[in-house]
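Morning - flavin-adenine dinucleotide inputs below, output right after.
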Amino acid sequence: MRTGSDYLESIRDGREVWIEGERVRDVTKHPALAPIIQARADVYDMVRGDEDRLRENPSAPVALAKTDQDGEARNTLLVRPRQKEDWYAKWEAHDEISRRVGGLFSRLGDDNLGEMWSVTDERERLEGLDNAFVDNVERHLRAIETSDVYHVSANTDPKGDRSKNPKDQDPDMLLHVVKETDRGIVVRGAKFETASLYANQAFVKPTITNWGDATLSPYAVGFVVQMNAPGLKHICRTTFTDAGKAADYPLSSRLDEVEALMIFDDVEIPWEDVFFYENTRAALIVRSSIHRYASFSMLLRLLKSAELLLGISHLNVEQTGLHRQQAVMEKLSILASYHESIRSHLIAAIESGSVSGSGLWVPHQSMLFSGRYSAVRDLPGMMHIARELTGGQIALTPDSKSFEQPEIAPYLEKYFGLSEEWPGEDRRRLLALARDFLNSGYAGHKLSFQLFSQAPPFAHLAAIFNSFDFEPSKSFTRQCARIGEEARGSA
Ligand SMILES: Cc1cc2nc3c(=O)[nH]c(=O)nc-3n(C[C@H](O)[C@H](O)[C@H](O)COP(=O)(O)OP(=O)(O)OC[C@H]3O[C@@H](n4cnc5c(N)ncnc54)[C@H](O)[C@@H]3O)c2cc1C
């Protein structure tokens, strides 16, 4: 498996990345991008360290590596979930990575790999269709597992005017095939994507599937693209990274997972990387199963956010001595209940899961999707409770340099130092974390991420509708209303 430096070397591959109007020659060295890229490299090293320990001693208690079915030690997050225990192992690995990183990651690979597990589940339905190449999916999945590449996901096109069909506006508003060659297909369009500029490859597929009755469509295409493919450009959004402000912004200065608009300016995709094309049925099957596993990773990330909301709030009220106030305890209980609700959905989804077509353990779908929906829906309210409990000081506290300045530091210690247990510097650190997590540009960005990263909320609800079994409720209602029984007269 890879080390951090293997990974860094792999993305120095001539890819075309733009930020703040300038072309970036080496993404690993750009000041706005280097911190998150280094953090990703550090995760590779952590996993590799655990793998080495596991290889030396197969019964070693390590969280980040696991012996897979083929006898190879690999990243626990990338191991296919064949039984319930594999999901708990991923959960533990995710906790351990977050602990060692000291922050939250969204794109760790497991989320996006889940999309590939779903496609292999659909082998039977896809195999009968024209231009659907499930063997390519299986080969890529195996390659990711064995070569440890950083694989992400591209769904969302700019889309243009949503009221128009693709053919009635600039056709490039949705990514599409422009021609076939002997070597593969040539695609044009654009996608928004987290981490594209520092990942190795992405699974690209359509986000909308409203082609009417058409069975053939150049928009119904799915493939893997290499991030340095000729014609591919990554245009970054503005970042929150400022390595010089790490003491004041402990999360965003290191862990801003930068998104980019990926422009496909006639990019050739070799046949062996094509999963399906010109087949709306295949696109529909892939879209409808896409979050079968990936939602679990998303819900895990939300659980970690809930943990941070609780930790920030509880430590703060302990510092200020407010934790015994009844009204404060009630607010902490609301946060605890949010946390427990997410945790319960995760456990229930694992325990009530079932075996998929490809032999994987599928988390119970309507429980998982309901967990995702309610966790995303309630997140802004929970952030606001944490903001309220932390008080105005997260918005008012002076910066770290002031706390170090000998002339003014004694004043800051006097007004921020609460006790021997909580000196001024520790209080400042807690408030800086709280500000970064709740009040900063990064905090707002992360809220948008949770709202939209997998799909917008209306699609979350559609996933519940499509997976929930309404029959028992209807049957019970029929029973209570005695529907279907013979009429018994007016008495
Ligand atoms: C921080 C961040 C990171 C992201 N990372 C990725 C990534 O890695 N890969 C990727 O592919 N995408 C990514 N996205 C994009 C994300 O998937 C899209 O933003 C999301 O799918 C919504 O698409 P849109 O932004 O085009 O919104 P629109 O399609 O314009 O929708 C906007 C709103 O209009 C309403 N609406 C639209 N259509 C309907 C409908 N049919 N029914 C009911 N209401 C409707 C809803 O309220 C919806 O929220 C990311 C987004 C964010 C914010």
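Note: The chain has a mean pLDDT of 95.

O.
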